[in-house]
Amino acid sequence: MAINNYWSSFIENMKNKIKSFFKWVLSIIVLFMLLGVIFWSFGTIKAWEKWILLRFWAVTWQTYNEWLYFKIPYIDDMIIMNVRVLKEQISATSASKDLQTINAVVALNFHLSASDVGQIYREVWLDYKEKIIDPTIQESIKASTAKFTAEELITKRESVKDQIKELLTKKLAPRFIIVDDVNIVNFNFSESFNKAIEEKVTAEQEALAARNKLERIKFEAEQKIAESKWKAEASRIEAEALKSNPEILQLRSIEKWNWILPQVTWANTPFVNIK
């Protein structure tokens, strides 16, 4: 009888311990679940982010700015939209006004309208670059380059840039995407056009060299003419001086004499020959 009571008491004690253990484990699980709910229900939003609230995977019009947020676990979800200035660079093949083939590389700086990120996500989700921006850049490049000749795309690069920016601003604003700046990274032309440009530059350089040479020759000729006129005027003045002052001729004769007297003189031979 005593043995039976012992085993009954032992078994009952073990059952109580097992129940206590499972209660402890269940309490731990519940605690972790509560902590998880609290952890996933609250969060912080960075200054450059805009968060959209989804409820049962449907877009709501409720958005959150920089601060703390709260969501209902397993019912609500949050989508992050970056509203900082972003960059998108696109390459597009187009044609100029004179039908030259051009490969243009254009970079767009833009940002999402912070107050309209919910509408953007509702329309295209997070694929606004692929579905809106990239096609619009390509379309704007083609429409803009078609208004300029290939040579003007080089000489009027700033005007081309302004044209592309104007088109992008006009097309992206209704989609709640704000254009900040546009840069033309590069224009690549066909090999034949590049060769034609090189030949034109070479011809212009040769023409400039020829003009410079002609100007130099003209200047040298004018110098020679001026020098000849100066010499002629000097000779005229000297002749008039000799004519009016015979003593100068005698002085020149003395200056040319080498101080050697002639060995034989004739009656009509001058003392010094000045020829």
TrEMBL record:
Gene3D superfamilies xref list: Band 7 domain (3.30.479.30)
Keywords (A to Z) from UniProt: Coiled coil, Membrane, Transmembrane, Transmembrane helix
Band domain segment(s): 40-201
GO cellular component entries: membrane
Coiled-coil regions listed: 150-213
TM helices/strands, residue ranges: 21-42
Pfam families: Band_7
UniProt keyword annotation of Translocase present: no
Name the record gives this protein: Band 7 domain-containing protein
Organism: uncultured bacterium (gcode 4)
